[in-house]
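Hey, resending since the last one bounced:
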Amino acid sequence: MEDQFVTVKHKVTDEDINDIMCTALEGGINCWCSKAEVIDGDYKGAEYASDSLSKGAKLLLHDCEDDHIGDEEKFTLTKEKFMKGFQLYLTNGVEKGRTVYTDPGDIDACEADCIIQFAVFGEIVYG
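The structure tokens again:
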């Protein structure tokens, strides 16, 4: 018998995005990202950079693992890309039989890193 998958709907709130982004920026993506900057001029009314994505701002992520000396790659993260990354995180985790978390309180730095990598690369690039 072939494996069967179901689709589960899960509402992701702006607060969920903020919490996951806070975890990512405070340690989750630091192994490959040297700097994250808000590129819409300001935080779009957010108090912290981690809250800016949910308010429509974009983050520019600087890749410190790039092989080009002095020429780092930069990736733009938007709310839409974040949502696609979260979906890929859920889908890939379920397909590989791993535990996936939907409650931001359960998402640790490693999980937040995976979500952001899926968002900007479409896959896990940095193990």
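Strands lie at 33-38, 59-63, 73-77.

Sorry for the duplicate.
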